[in-house]
Amino acid sequence: MTKHLVYGETPEYTVVKNNALLTLDLAEILKDSDGDGINDIEETQKLFTNPYSKDTDGNSPK
Predict the structure, then answer these.
(1) pLDDT of 8-24, one tens digit each?
(2) I need a surface site. Which of 32, 38, 40, 62 has the fewest CB within 10 A?
């Protein structure tokens, strides 16, 4: 962890390996734009659903 964790802030991690620096923003990784419980990355990369629509397949009762 690169900085002291303060309540309400998202921790930021930095990994250094083979002279490569990788900084991860956990808030961005875990973001769920539509609030359906599936994060945006999983929706776009694995499920191929719309991360901005709770009912991508349109089967929700009206």
Answers:
(1) 666 666 767 777 777 77
(2) 62
Q: What is the pTM of this model?
A: 0.59
Q: What is the 3-state secondary structure (H, E, C) of the chain?
A: CCCCCCCCCCCEEEEEECCEEEEEEHHHHCCCCCCCCCCHHHHHHHHCCCCCCCCCCCCCCC
Task: Answer yes or no: are the C-beta atoms of 43 and 25 closer than 8 Å.
Answer: no
Cα-flanking dihedrals φ and ψ of residue 11, to 5°? -70, 150
Nearest to 44 by CA among 28, 59, 58, 60: 28
